[in-house]
Protein: NOL1/NOP2/Sun domain family member 4
Amino acid sequence: MIYQKQLIHLLKKRSIQINLSFVRYARPFKKKWMFSLHHGSHSNELALEYFDFAYPLIFHRHWPSIRLALLSLPKPVALLNPYSLSNKNIKQKLIEQGSVDMLRFDNEKLREDFNLIQKQISNSDNEYQIKKLLEQKENRRLLGTSDLVDEQEDINEEEEEQEEEINEDDDMNTFNQPEPVKRLDEIYKLALEQQAQSVIKGNVVSIVDDDKERDYRKIPPSWHVYTFPRSNMSRFEPAKTDELGLLDYYCMDGACILPIIALDVQPFHSVLDLCSAPGGKALNIFHMCPYIQLTCNDINGSRWKRLIEVFTQTVPKDTLAKHVKLVKGDGCLFGERQPASFDRVLVDVPCTSDRHALITAFNIFSKKRIQERVELPAYQRKLLESAIRACKPGGIVVYSTCTLAPVQNEGVVEQAIENLASTSNKKSRGYQGKVPIKCEVISTQSLEKHYAYFFDFYAKTRYGSLVLPHISNNFGPLYFCKIRRIN
Structure:
């Protein structure tokens, strides 16, 4: 509470308007505030400043740790190529270097010890929140208004009423952003208005726990993903080619395997990767279960070329021609053109790409792309709705992003399922009617528990799972949600 009053007083002196719902979360960090009043001009600087403004509201005291990981080198994993002639040799070499197959990691003692640590951290978080609430109440009782006369002179009655209305339990699921301050430019203003309108209800989609009996230790023999243990920051050597010109392994973000595990592809399934480029997740799908018909689609020309390059470098031409179909088209139209056609659909949508945004000079936080970023959740929702329409009844759709923003994660899932349940345009034999499509979210808690040693999962997601970057195992961010189409 003292910090809130000090911050209000400081901002009043500088003639800056600010909403109290933001001040509530502001905390000093080495005598500096966690947001700046003057932002940079480059898009990666704008991205970092926007993250520093928005994410402390969601992740609270965990944000500095997440921020450090985002600004550090990511930790890759090596997806072994089963078609490479040097497969056996490279597997032995990776083991000798100290890496482990994260899909087959079976050190139960290490798992149990780590789960105990995570439980202690969770209990500590709860104790911390309770302690802070008690401190705030005690400060109100002891200080009252008489000790803060000078600071209160600059606070009008309207602001005091706003403070009283702040909900102490407000968290990421409501994601109510503050009103934009005067000195924030248009890039902040539009984004904040967009997110202020997004409220995740959290009770409109049914959640089932069908995966709780699934044995995650049963992994197909063709699928191997190697990484170094926690706190080991070793790097893999550049991949090499064999006599056939095929790479021996493919490096990527380790969190990318989680949506593939959730997808649960079985032999002879027809599978659609709706936004496939650059191809890492599609490659995991194919190595996980080679006996499938895989359709990979992307609309972006340069990314689609990268997708073709990845597959031609890792899969023999005859196998590629037999089992993989590479398509260039608008993912939003798949649901209309090929309704109820696929057993499994992965839709890894374009997003703000939080980690990528911090290292790229021209990203979606560029001032020239303001409108594109504001319209991004609507575009993501259209892609997810198209993916669900393209999925067969009883089939599985996995939605994923590489952002921490709830408006692009749970918000999109909830809105898409709500929209499809109310009305869904369907054309059949010249007749156009409105037929609802019902869906349910499948819990991924058992998956989180099994892979908790390698990934840090956020505990407060309403739908799906969110991997938080952490310096000891710097994967993510990655959000994924498993959805079943019922009818």
